Please model this.
Amino acid sequence: MRIALFATCIVDAMYPEVAQATVRVLRRLGHEVIFPEGQSCCGQMHINSGKFAQAEPVIANHVRAFTDTEWDVAVAPSASCVASLGHQQPMVARRMGNDVLASEAADVADRTYELTQFLTDVQGVTDAAADLGSYFPHRVTYHPSCHGMRLLRLGDRQSSLVRSVEGIDFVELPLADSCCGFGGTFSVKNPEVSSAMLADKVRTIQATNADVCTGGDASCLLHIGGGISRFERTGSFDGAPDVTAVHVKETSSTDAQGHTTEKLTTVVGADDDHHLTPGEQGTSPVEPSRSQSGFRVGQAAVHLARILASTKEDPLRVPSEGAEVSGGSLR
Amino acid sequence: MTFLGMPLLPSKRRSDLPGGQGNLIEAEAFPEASHQHLSNQQLRNNIGHATSTIREKRAEVVSELDDWEALRDAGEATKNEVMENLPEYLAQFEEAFTAAGGIIHWARDADEANAIVTELVEDNAPVLESGRREVIKVKSMATQEIGLNEHLETQGIDAFETDLAELIVQLGEDKPSHILVPAIHRNRDEIREIFMDKMPDAGELTNEPAVLAEAARKHLRHKFLTTKVAISGANFGIAETGTLGVVESEGNGRMCLTLPETLITVMGIEKLLPKFADLEVFMQLLPRSSTGERMNPYTSFWTGRSEGDGPQNVHLVLLDNGRTRALADEHGRTALNCIRCSACMNVCPVYERTGGHAYGSTYPGPIGAILSPLLTGVEEQGNGSLPYASSLCGACYDVCPVKINIPEILVHLRNEDVKANHSPVSSQLDAALTGASWMMGDGKRMTAAEKGLPLAHKVTGGEQINSLPGIAGAWTSSRDIPALPEKSFRQQWAEEEADRREEEGEK
Model:
């Protein structure tokens, strides 16, 4: 199949390695991948900000870029952008009185798939280890992004593929279906509410003790990774020690050799039994529960395309192995 | 003929229709209003605990029904049908209600509705020794919306809320923060203090729910038996029969609806259902969505008056207060389909962290973020920040029993806000979006812009970014930004393509 890669603006400019991983996975299945050079963005940033007039040229550019060349299907490593193509572009074009653009946009959207949607529905891939050679021997938790879950109805497509990677230790994320608080310009227009949502998301991720949190949307991972990095560096989201809803207690346990080990357990959420008293707030600051130096953004939150692309021959490495997340080229 | 206030003339512009008044308008913008609530850990705990409990109950009872999606479709279709033919249904309802012995009053806005109710109370409630009049009330969003209690107070009339949660809010001189659980932001210790402070004969109380409920019960009993006038809202009005209905959990509403001599109901004009049989669908949708119960404990219906039984003077104030204006908005009108179940608030991650007061309106949460601006008109009035009070995660749309596409209406209202150009001075974010639109409107410009990445990579030393100035500082106040790559994907692609062509040329 001749597949047109829609890299999306955020992956193109900030996470080129995610696009590379997507290309590797698609090529491994024997497809020819092309990159329509005129592409830029789906327009979601402008549409969700209510700027329909500014979105129109962005939508027109996307349609132009993807009708200039011949291809069978288009694939994007982002549920949010694919949802925007189908749900928003035609609506905005119509609202701008541009019915021709609306129908062209709908045509392009009809043939555009989110990566795991393509792998599962079109290719019938159910076992990433067998079908793609995916290998990632690490503890991984998964955040299903809102638009994939609720607009594209991806269901368990993403988590099933991640689970089927060889060597993976998959751990469920509590309250996985809560939004991470990114919401595009929401995080700039309502930064405090966004931070509060992010804080809860990061706490649940930390409580899983996973090496990385994966997901299918670079934008959410930018947000989550940025939050993890900030928290790991400073023990806080906003400069003040984080005490809001985390209850940290140290528990000791005895291992097989009879040694007592100290273990840091994070209890997430607060209910009637876990109200923090002012005294606790003053005396029990949260210690960063991982590395002293702190994670770099993009190390703890890793796009699932990179995990699917990771193989024994060309493995993706995580910080716990003493290396930054690395690995992966087009070849 | 009764003036229905409907947009019958095609030439009538939405902005010419009257906007709603009363408790519908944000006093301060959402980002600022949410600030103090976010730091109130007690409030966040109370709300988080309550919403997650109701959320789980709702999911459980909804999963019991195999035909839940069909019920939602039916609910949506019925409400759409009502909105498409609202003038006809209102006329039919008026005729049936009047034939059954009730009296209808039409109110264009909050002021008119308050004036009508005041006059009715003055005609039917005696002046007490204190020199004031008293009415008892059934929990009602419509009367909260128009600020009826506050208005009555200035007219020498004391309105006593009889719903337990509304009573807590009223005694605490507070405002409701949730449409189903108005005192959701309070815990039992706070309620105990309010009762001991404000109930003259409460005595010493513990914080046990049963003890607190019993105190309220004693406090209210005397009012039920002596007060001549009751005021209610209505969950449904049936056009076919002229019937009104109230759905509740405590039975206090039924006491108000049956014991006094005069019953005054205030109902929004959008609350109609065509036929009595439609209740089959809505009585499954509403309790499950709102309280997570298969059926609520008390459902009361009344059709006009019955000689010698129940209230003998039955009045209904049909309230517009911006509803025709909302109806005239083809992209927003389905917000009027709302049956006030509050399922959207219980799943909203924004509401869960800010509580209802941050929305500044009787209607908080996702539905409030669209309904309030639609009622007041986002174009030239306030409420401009409410449509932005959402991450567009879509959880609200998933649970809405009548399938209101709240995220899409939020985006529509943002567009209305942008078109109204409330802030002529462009913010940094607006300027950035304008620049991005130009750049992203052409892939070549995007390519050119990304050629700056090596420089940006160098400037930042290939390091992640922990602090940025200006509007971007809102982001870096709590999140780091990754190190910028040296090359964009399209640059890498172009280079690899060039290499490949060169290799092929050599062969």
Notes: Residues 241-293 of chain A have pLDDT under 50 and may be disordered. Chain A touches chain B through 85 residues (CB under 8 Å).
